[in-house]
Amino acid sequence: MNTTPQILRILPEVILTLVGVIIMLVEPLIAKSSSRKPLGWFSVLGVIAALAGSLYQYQLPSGTAYFGTVQTDPFSIFFHVLIAGIVLASLLIALDSAPDSTPFLGEYFALVCFGAVGMMLMSSAVELLLVFIGLEISSISTYILAGFRRKSAKAPESSIKYFLLGSFATAFFLYGIALVFGATGTTDISGIAQALGSSTTPMLALIGVSMMLIGLGFKVSAAPFQVWTPDVYEGAASPVVALMSTGPKVAAFAVLLRVLYGAVPALHLHWVPLLWLLAALSMTVGNLGALRQKNVKRMLAYSSIAHAGYLLVAFTALSADGIAAASFYAVSYAAMNVGVFAVVSHAGGYDDRLTLIEDYKGLAYRSPLLGGAMGFFLISLIGIPFTGGFFGKFYVFSAAIHSGFVWLAVIGLINSGIAAYYYLRVLAAIYSKPAESSPVMAVPAATLPLLLALLITVASTLILGIAPGRILAQAKAAAATYPVINPDADSAAVAGR
Amino acid sequence: MLIDSILTLTTFVPTAGAVVVALLPRKGRIIQWWTLLVSVVTFLLTLHLPAHFIYGQSGFQFEENYAWIANPAIRYHLGVDGISMWLVVLTGFLAVAGCLASWKTVETRTKEFYFFFLLQQTAMIGVFVALDMFLYYGFWELSLVPMAILIAMFGKERGPKTALKFFTYTFIPSALFLVAILYLYAKTGTFDYVKLQQALTANGSLFTADALGWVSLAFLVAFAVKVPVFPLHGWLSDTITDAPTAMAMVVAGKLGLYSILRFNLGLFPAQARAIAPLMIALSVIGLLYGACIALVQRDMKRLVAYSILSHLSFCTLGIFSFALSGLNGAVYQILNHGLSGSAMLILIGILYNRYGTYELSEYGGLAAKTPWLVTLFVITTLSLIGLPMLNGFVGEFLVLSGSYAHHAGWIFAATIGVILGAAYMLSMVQKIFYGPESAMITRHSVADLGFREHVILWPMAILMLVMGVASPYWIKAINGAVTGLADTATQTVTYTADHLPADHLPADHLLEKR
């Protein structure tokens, strides 16, 4: 059909699979007593190669491969690059904070690579079954990673909880696919969009889409499907949380965009109110939940629920701006959240020496660099201008208001006002005087991988806030992949809700 | 010589200075000297504005206008007019004073302090010069961060709590303010202040009256909290008490008042007029309430905090009178208060530095020991209570006389506030400096003002006097900018020499009116 070699369409996935397999093969050859860190650096190189591979795909004309199951287009590349960036930073974080003595550290790096393959597949698949396979690859890797810290009592709990609820959600997703297939006779995204016009059972498709929404809602931890989040984040090691609070979520958001805007734009009158509700609930539940937390990781878990809510706001906008805003927000959320976990995992260490907000008292006194970086990420999470967090929020709510959802914006921004309180508690703790025997005094000095991870995340957060032009342009190009949903006469009815 | 992009320079020189501070070693007083140098340079740059300001020209000057982000249409648009110009200069001036005032009071964590101190300067100047709503909002929010962090770091044991209170108080209304900005953008397609103003006046059908009412209210509440206007002043006394002096000097007043003038009056004149009776009532209540509370304070920093509430209410009173002289007086009063209020905070900071307490009852009979301190303290006090010849009088007089025609009853109440103001300020002076010498004063023998303190305070005292007798120099620019905002249609106050002392109105303005 097209002259592009098919393998180039899945180049980043191929690279990462090879890297993962090589790590698995080499790991047993290394003496038991020696460090696994070189494998980590190897995986870092692999991810950089995958990143380059994704960027290379910009040279290719948009198109599908392997019987129309994967598609490279500005949208898929955008998310590939983002996922590669997240994985890169989280590998560096793991290299920084996981001690050499961690059992199966080699497998850890391999699993991260495999997980990345799954996430990337999710963003480029245009065939629901392949989406599902990507989802499974990414989920199974993260289930294992969540329980990686076997000696801690909370890790197995975290892993099991994540696994059980996650598979439940995946089942919903799969069932949704089946129903959509029943309604339209195809699992191909663009095929569904075409078949939906002539489908005699659009209700069936709608139910299917709602099921998929539930499944993906679990993955992005949108309320009311968020209950697992705080427990899992608390139990898992911080480098893992850095990855799983961003990577799989970003991929799930890509799928959600693909499905809603690619496959079922015709049903927008029905799904927009659902997303409205999900967004409003997630923001409120996330922020109110976070207010009560004393544990930093649990607080950040609730904050991630709230941020999923902000991102979902963009989905309701229906315009190209909405998709671009969602994509942009995904980037800025990833940058600041990975960043904050970089500091948390270094300061708290692999075994969570610092857990409570109290424990962070005086971090900026112990290390101005760590304290300053954490402060900066918190400020971005609050949404103070000249950071990525602000511009993301600004863009999302601007798109929503453009489409007439003023109330959703009011709910969202009041929420962000409330959110300022709990982020600031941490910020104030960081900058207040530590007690003599405070645990922050034992925080080790920053290492090279941590510095690299901080450099990546701080720079991206700052650039996204001050000079977002280029990334905005890429997000817009990604959004242009989808047909514009006409805000026709009946959308006035939606806007009124 | 006219410098291109002077506003960008003025705004970002402190940021560049802050970056250097972060890299400087923590040795000796290098960081202080560097910050002082940056502040002086910034101040000199701000002086460039009045030197090259073209009087009588309406609209904005020194404009810089570039595209920043293509879509959403955000521009990097800076400019000043007669209102903002002097506020920029004031900010530059207070930065130097603040830096000197912190010289010895901030001994630990100097790097953090001066880093955030300089960042705060950028944020404040940015608020005054930004003419793009997005940019403006950026600086507006940014101005909270260094403040909150410094309060948390330096506010004794209550610091973190106060910082939280201050931040959430101002941040939550700002969230609604952002909704309002985005709503305006959705309807008009621009963030640019000038274009927005045109769109709002030219195209009334774009908005329903209700929507505009809510939008302007969202603006007003965000600004009123920051001023603060009664009853939104809950954060003020703790913040003033716990913030380091250099920060307390700039936390209240000018940012919020300027924004009310610029946006509520500039963009929503009809809505601002509709809400004016309420605002006038709140101003007068705030004025009296602040004065009454100040009267019973035993802690001098709290006393000053409530006096700030009282004084700033004068400004809102003048603004919402919509009379030309009221507006002139309000802007002038912002400058006065920036100057004299800061001097007062520095002075009680000096007392605290020497005696370690703000408790009034501990003091007494200090005058004999520190003649210089008492001189400056009294001058500042007199300026704050509005003694003729000093700056405070001009502002208060213009406000009261301007608003009198329409709001005689309220103005009557406000003048009672003036009397109460004299009462609490003078009784504070009396308690600290006169009467029998207290045990604490006898126990600790302290030095009078040092060289550095003289250097900070004398220019301020001289300015108080100059601004008291040569007000037309400042009002000339202010008047040009506020004329468009005043109620010209229903102008009942006639500006003749027998209404106002001639030297308190610009001469050319008098000619125009005749």
From TrEMBL, chain A:
Membrane topology: Multi-pass membrane protein
Membrane-spanning ranges: 6-26, 38-57, 77-95, 104-122, 128-148, 160-183, 203-228, 240-261, 267-288, 300-320, 369-392, 404-424, 445-467
Keywords: Cell inner membrane, Cell membrane, Membrane, NAD, Quinone, Translocase, Transmembrane, Transmembrane helix, Transport, Ubiquinone
Family that this chain belongs to: Belongs to the complex I subunit 2 family.
GO cellular component labels: endomembrane system; plasma membrane
Record note on quaternary structure: NDH-1 is composed of 14 different subunits. Subunits NuoA, H, J, K, L, M, N constitute the membrane sector of the complex.
Top enzyme class: translocase
GO BP annotation list: ATP synthesis coupled electron transport
Recorded catalytic activity of this chain's protein: a quinone + NADH + 5 H(+)(in) = a quinol + NAD(+) + 4 H(+)(out)
Domain called NADH:quinone oxidoreductase/Mrp antiporter transmembrane: residue spans: 125-418
GO terms assigned for molecular function: NADH dehydrogenase (quinone) (non-electrogenic) activity; NADH dehydrogenase (ubiquinone) activity; quinone binding
Name of the protein this chain belongs to: NADH-quinone oxidoreductase subunit N
Role description: NDH-1 shuttles electrons from NADH, via FMN and iron-sulfur (Fe-S) centers, to quinones in the respiratory chain. The immediate electron acceptor for the enzyme in this species is believed to be ubiquinone. Couples the redox reaction to proton translocation (for every two electrons transferred, four hydrogen ions are translocated across the cytoplasmic membrane), and thus conserves the redox energy in a proton gradient.
Organism expressing this protein natively: Silvibacterium bohemicum
Subcellular location: Cell membrane; Endomembrane system; Membrane
Stored Pfam families: Proton_antipo_M
InterPro entries, sorted: NADH-Q_OxRdtase_suN/2 (IPR010096), ND/Mrp_TM (IPR001750)
KW Nucleus (keyword) present: no
EC number: 7.1.1.-
From TrEMBL, chain B:
GO cellular component: endomembrane system; membrane
Membrane is among the record's keywords: yes
MF terms in GO: NADH dehydrogenase (ubiquinone) activity; NADH dehydrogenase activity; ubiquinone binding
Transmembrane segments: 6-24, 36-55, 83-101, 113-131, 137-154, 166-186, 206-225, 246-268, 274-296, 303-324, 330-352, 372-390, 410-434, 455-475
Coiled-coil stretches noted in the UniProt entry, renumbered to this chain: none
Domain of life: Bacteria
Annotated ranges, domain NADH:quinone oxidoreductase/Mrp antiporter transmembrane: 130-419
Record's bilayer topology term: Multi-pass membrane protein
Sorted UniProt keywords: Membrane, Transmembrane, Transmembrane helix
Subcellular location: Endomembrane system; Membrane
GO biological process, any: electron transport coupled proton transport
Alphabetized InterPro entries for the sequence: NADH_Q_OxRdtase_chainM/4, NADH_UbQ_OxRdtase, ND/Mrp_TM
Family of this protein: Belongs to the complex I subunit 4 family.
NCBIfam families documented for this protein: NDH_I_M
Alphabetical list of PANTHER family matching this protein: NADH-UBIQUINONE OXIDOREDUCTASE CHAIN 4
Protein name: NADH-quinone oxidoreductase subunit M
Organism annotation: Silvibacterium bohemicum
